[in-house]
Write the structure tokens for this entry.
Amino acid sequence: MNTLATLAPRRFRPGFWTGVFVILFLAFCAVTIIRYTKGLGAVTNLSDQFPWGLWIGFDLLCGVGLAAGAFTLTAVVHLFNLKRFEPIVRPTILTGFLGYAFVIVALLLDLGQPWRIWHAIVYWNTHSVMFEVAWCVMLYTTVLAVEFAPVVLERFGFHAPARLIHQLITPLVILGVILSTLHQSSLGSLYLIVPSKLHPLWYSPMLPLHFYISAIGAGIGMIILESYLSKRAFHHHLEMDLLEPLARGMVVALGIYGLMRLQGIARNHAFGTITNLSYEGRMFLIEFTLGVVLPVILMSFRRLRTNQDWLVGGAFLAVLGFVMNRLNVSITGMEAASGTRYLPSAMEIIVSLGLVGTGMAVFAFAVRNFSIFPEGPVAGRPKEPAVGA
Amino acid sequence: MGMGLLFDATRCIGCGACSSACKEQNKLPGKVEEVLTAYTWTTVQEKEGLNVRRLCMHCEVPTCASVCPVGALTKTPEGPVVYDAERCMGCRYCMMACPFEIPKYQWDRPVPVVGKCILCAGRLKEGKPTACAEACPAEATIFGKKEDLIWEARTRIRQKPGAYVDHIYGLTEAGGTSVLMISNVSFDKLGLKTNLPGEPPAMKTWQVLSNIPDFVAVWAVFLYGVHWITARREVVAKAGTNGNGGHGQGNGREDRS
């Protein structure tokens, strides 16, 4: 790569979305200050009856889950040796890393005493799923950082360490896949301990497997979505020939997951709570129809998979269904047992949106300044309309 | 088995001496509240014309202790489930997981900790009963060795047939607890959870967690195996094309195929 050319400053023109992001970010900072000075009660709708809310249900569970594209695709390329997918590995690893960074920031806000986060390293309780979660977050974030490091190292001309990482890629990818398998499933295991609290539409002894497989499906959905979004933002072409077979993989993952969910509900004899259209039943129907049934049916047709709009639509549904599932497990399914209703406060939502916005801004910055896509650093072309304009 | 408490709902007069004594003993700020909070570790609620105490049940295999990532909650041999505020990071998994919904949080403080009954662990070490049991004027809450308390509860139920529901709450719930309750009204009407498994919930996660070392080993071998096969296939494929195009002479592999 021509270093001099890529080191030249990239064109950045603030538009509508930049403004939205700046306002959101300032609001996020304000909430953060209140949270650390007045306590969690001042900014959240959390209570003794409902101790885990949006920051766990969305920021943590979805942030980790949607980062699953990284381990899936690195396994496909480096372990299954399907090298043709290599061009989309870098943006996927970047998404994974940003997803985990997002989770860590969210944890720093959600933990009552975040300055003690290192206690998980010092005080061990191997009987705790949360202990497993903590270690997986730490180790896998490190693995993702190392996997992404060559992009940064090469950009600044440090080729020797980048080559070393390339040589170690196989053990690194295997480590990443193992940690991800443990981590994705452990988020489901977190809820194994509440058989008397979580609604039977979602509780199952197979929860770890549900979480793992649905994360693979949604992780692939994220790869497609993020390719589409960066195509729109940076006018770089959509690799339809790569995304179409990925969508096929998504159908398989979602199909297996859907069957497992139905089996779990049958085992709990909970179909009655769907047919009587209870609150939980309605939420389940929306989640399962939009997020599993519809994308599986749509993406089974080759004609729709090869059509860009349908492909992106199918991926969007899978991601949406995934987010709804995690929110249903962590919020909807826990409400009846808690005896209360929980709705996130405006400030909780601001934090989550602010984090999503920051993630997207960092992604855009990285795409402009590093070789994330095969064509190298990309800038919005001045002659075409800017994003959101 | 350790020490414990026996609460008899038919004897409780609802005076609240236990809650006040608890506040004083543990130096908890504010008035006694109607529900448990981080500052009210025990309270008396009126249900079905009876008075029923709310407090930590002190499980034999505590769910809270099993889920705490830093081991801030522990079961002591004397019976109490105690909390180390210096270790706690505030993940609140204990609150989420507790089948009795006991641990509460200081939502109003910038440096919050969990609050829950610790069965006066300090007093127990000195050989004293809990503050609540000592304060109770009606002997509705009595303190003693758990086996003696079970014996006492069984005797009361047997001696007055019909005066009690034939069940000691806490004997099997969530694997058994150090706090036991008897009543003449079914326990769900007193607001107690009656859908709890007899097996400690902690076992459900341990079944998964205990398999992790084996799983990691098998998964690592499998993944490396996949890599080895696909990489080898590529090498073989390359060798095959070289053999054909390069010199036109057959090798063993071609002969077989």
About this structure: Chain A touches chain B through 56 residues (CB under 8 Å). The first helix of chain A runs from residue 3 to 7. Chain A has one domain: 16-368. The domain at 16-368 of chain A is CATH 1.20.1630.10 (Formate dehydrogenase/DMSO reductase fold).
